[in-house]
Amino acid sequence: xxxxxxxxxxxxxxxxxxxxxxxxxxxxxxxxxxxxxxxxxxxxxxxxxxxxxxxxxxxxxxxxxxxxxxxxxxxxxxxxxxxxxxxxxxxxxxxxxxxxxxxxxxxxxxxxxxxxxxxxxxxxxxxxxxxxxxxxxxxxxxxxxxxxxxxxxxxxxxxxxxxxxxxxxxxxxxxxxxxxxxxxxxxxxxxxxxxxxxxxxxxxxxxxxxxxxxxxxxxxxxxxxxxxxxxxxxxxxxxxxxxxxxxxxxxxxxxxxxxxxxxxxxxxxxxxxxxxxxxxxxxxxxxxxxxxxxxxxxxxxxxxxxxxxxxxxxxxxxxxxxxxxxxxxxxxxxxxxxxxxxxxxxxxxxxxxxxxxxxxxxxxxxxxxxxxxxxxxxxxxxxxxxxxxxxxxxxxxxxxxxxxxxxxxxxxxxxxxxxxxxxxxxxxxxxxxxxxxxxxxxxxxxxxxxxxx
Length: 453
Ligand SMILES: [Zn+2]
Description:
By secondary structure, this protein is α+β, with helices and mostly antiparallel strands. Helix content is about 35%, strand content about 20%. Helix 1 (about 5-10) runs antiparallel to helix 15 and helix 5 packs parallel to helix 14.
């Protein structure tokens, strides 16, 4: 491919692509609030149609999935997984410009969803435009799968992928996100942890009671909840649900080698989060990196019971609840976690603790030495002056298991996120230079992929 021409096009037409991105960011497609999804799906579909893709807006059990396919020269298919939904923009007062009125200042574009994930969609389209302008055709077949419920856990995507596995079939997949760190080094994450998110609730009384009346004779929902929670994890950080670790695959020698090559993170965590000491006396290095992402976790994300206003209120609350997330590693599943959690609570005498399942995703990994993943890592060098830094896993979650499991494709990350991108937070933004670099990287990936035997 003629990269001189391609790079020239990418720079010359950048503002056109940013205009297209701004148009998409003006739609408040917030899955959690059920707004703008139809509109955003229609706009993404029209963007693909404009570029010669065969497009379908396909129903799922939730928001529609935009599917686009355009044939290319080589008999190979690359999938792009993206999402058109965004996080809620609240709290609005912390934004320096309105979240759904994209604002370009200091080489950055500010808007809710501009980084997560709309900028990824349009920068990838920008890359395809440059290739089409220079070459007249795509180097391989491209399929876009753009869903609308990523920010609420992609609950309906795995069954959708399973049902349409034939249509969505491909040889490899580029994931919705990717990051460049503070040194400008792009990061490759070969896997995502899974998650099982639950709310545990207890209700012991029909109404709140004066604590002087009920304190010694009525059961306390708050105590019941706290006692139940205390059985989930010990001070040694081990999750105490029986057989909880039976399906956990420990890190391989290759994983350990990769973790040992990563830069030290301890100092940064001390500084950024004010953490004084890490759990289990870890001090840093590969040990901390491995514990961070290769082990299951159980986190109390929120606790609610009784009076929490100023001063004192002597009350025995009727109800108590906690939000708890379990991050999962291969080969754990959310279903297995739920079953084991219920059995454990029952066995401990907490039949009264009710579990509400709030969503989950299975963990998924691609072999760090997979040829496609390595291609994505290596092609970054020309663009970023450094190959990607290869992480065996990241601690977060996403629906990559469905792609790996039902479509049998390697999944690689590449993208335009950077440390101050503020995804999910006020003043979410992208840097235009990163936008351009990501588009350039995509063109190199496409060429190398279409030539790969
Ligand atoms: Zn997100």
